[in-house]
Write a structure and sequence with these properties.
ten-stranded antiparallel sheet
Length: 308
Amino acid sequence: MQSFRFSTHGLAHERRVPALQDLFQEAVQLDISAAPGHPVAMAMNRGPGLRWAKMLSSLTARMERPASKLADGEDSVCLMLKAEGNIRVEQGRRAGEPRTGDGVFLVYREPAVLDFSDATYLSVRVPLTALRLSGRAEAAAALCIPRETEALSLLKAYVMALPEELADPQLRHLAAAHVYDLIAVALDRSGGIGDPQRMSGIRAGRLAAIKGDLARDATRDLGSIAASRRISPRYIQMLFEEAGTTFSHYALNLRLDSARRMLESPLHRGWTITAVAMEAGFGDISHFNRSFRRRFGMSPSDCRRAMR
């Protein structure tokens, strides 16, 4: 992973635009025309399979990727998250104009025109093959991702938290994979064009992680787990529904299993039924008794007597 900063602030006015053009043509594969003398500063990070950049000063410019430039074979996708100003991306029959906080896609295999006016932004660029879009790439061209999309917020926070240098190849690969998955989720939520196999794997992984949270502490509620995982409570409910159950039913069964283990254990022989229920996370003893009988076909007292 390599990082560097670019600035035209120290250059003579007549050298600023040529320097900017050289950078964008070599590093970004875009033709750019900007106002003469306007200083520009940006930070860039480049690594295998992942690049990201942050525009540090406002940019007023026009960028183009004409059909003649497609011969370079560049086949990546750039997601730009607008911070300030105005951005407009035209590709195919779509024109994307993101609001502040929105994201907009640029697909490099398609001709494009980009207009920036006093704009600052964060851009994340990945290989198109990493998103497994294949023939659906055109559907992502100039597509806007609303700022309310949780995957977009998480992507921004994750990229901004990445260190400028990652020497470990395994960590570089892992960081890139996380970015691919977050972009795929954002595409699926907004454009319905996420890779089905990838989305299935992501959901399965998240469900397993949430079940792990509950296995460590079955008394945790939906809101606290959603907050710690930075996803919505409704999304967690959807994951459990896809698995044929509900969050509350799954957590209840874990608490009941815990209570039964305590009732059957010699270590808790001196505990009252109420104490066992409270330890397992039940605040209502009547609810505990009813739920226990439904689950195991006997009362907590019957369970303890059977063990004795």
